[in-house]
Each structure stands twice: as structure tokens, then as C-alpha cells.
Amino acid sequence: MEGKGFCGCPGSKTETIERKETADAGGGTRPSELRQWPIQLHLVSPAAPYYREADVLLAADCTAFSLGEFHRDHLKGKGLAIACPKLDEGQDVYVERIAALIDEARVKSLTVLVMQVPCCMGLFQLVQSAVGKAERKIPIRLKVVGLQGDIIQDRSV
After folding, report:
1. Which whole-number Å values give the CA distances from 98 to 24, 104, 107, 145, 147, in the listed order?
2. Are 133 and 95 a contacting pair, CB within 8 Å?
């Protein structure tokens, strides 16, 4: 655990989750690929060790529920942050937080995973604003999930 001497809500405490490599035993249960806590963009810290020089997935909240293999195909090996561009308040903080992930955490890449609905592209627009503020340039990938749970767009930007 990372948060020695932590004061505040236990749900906001920075924690690295250690996972053992396990194969699916054929019982239909796959292990989670989540490597850290917290994951909500308002709560994440760019100083957390799991973001340092990591590949990061910034996922709209609904995407994990729309993709049957979210953990295996999209989350595995990545730091995670989630947000909802329609319902979350204080999105100006998101621009600063994403820029800090790029510059302070020195993330290697950022994949933005959104739904095909128009409001969801607001998350990608926040990323574009953050990239404009960041000093470092990193690879950005946009993946758009269709309502049927398939990837309908996957491109580098």
C-alpha cells in the first residue's frame, strides 16, 4: 500500500494492487486486470507510482460495461482513470489532471476509450485541451465503442 500516514476518505487512498499471473482455469472466471486504486479521474494522483512512465487508459464510465472483454483487451498492463464527460462536474480539473499525467507522471501513452454517443466525445475533447497545455508530446489513441459492444473506431491522433 502506498498511502502511509493517509488522512481522509479511505476510498481515496492511493493503493497499488499486486496481481499474480493466473491462467483462466476454464471455469469462466477471469481475474481483474485493475492495478490500482482510486480510478475516478477526480481522485487520481499523477504522483502515484502506477502512473509513472506507464501506458494509461482513460475510459468513459460506460465503456467497461459495454465491452465483454474490457479487462483482457483494454485494461491489461495499463494504469486506469475513468470519467463521465456528461455527468461529472468540475471538468476543468480533468484538463489539469490529464496534463499532469503527461508531464509529471511522464506517461508513455494515453488511450481514450469512449462510447459512440455524442456526449462521450467530450472526454476526448478534454484530452485534446490537456495535450495542448502539456509540454511533452505522447502517443494518443482514440477508441470508440459502439452500442453493440464493438470497437467502431480505433485511430492514433
Report:
1. 34, 10, 10, 21, 26
2. yes
DSSP 102-137: HHTS--SEEEEEEESSGGGHHHHHHHHHHHHH-SS-
- The rounded distance, in Å, linking the Cα atoms of 110 and 80 is 10
Distance of alpha carbon 67 from alpha carbon 147, whole angstroms? 9
**Domain range summary for the chain, segments of one domain joined by +:** 32-156
User: Which residue has 509540454 as its cell numbers?
Assistant: 135
The pLDDT score that the predictor gives to residue 15 is: 82
Write the pLDDT tens digit of every residue in 81-112: 999 999 999 999 999 999 999 999 999 999 99
Q: Are 140 and 156 in contact (CB under 8 A)?
A: yes
Contact 37, 14 (CB under 8 A): yes
Helix (H, G, I), strand (E, B) or coil at 20: coil
The class of domain 32-156 in CATH terms is alpha beta
CB neighbours of residue 38 within 10 Å: 19
- Whole-prediction pTM: 0.86
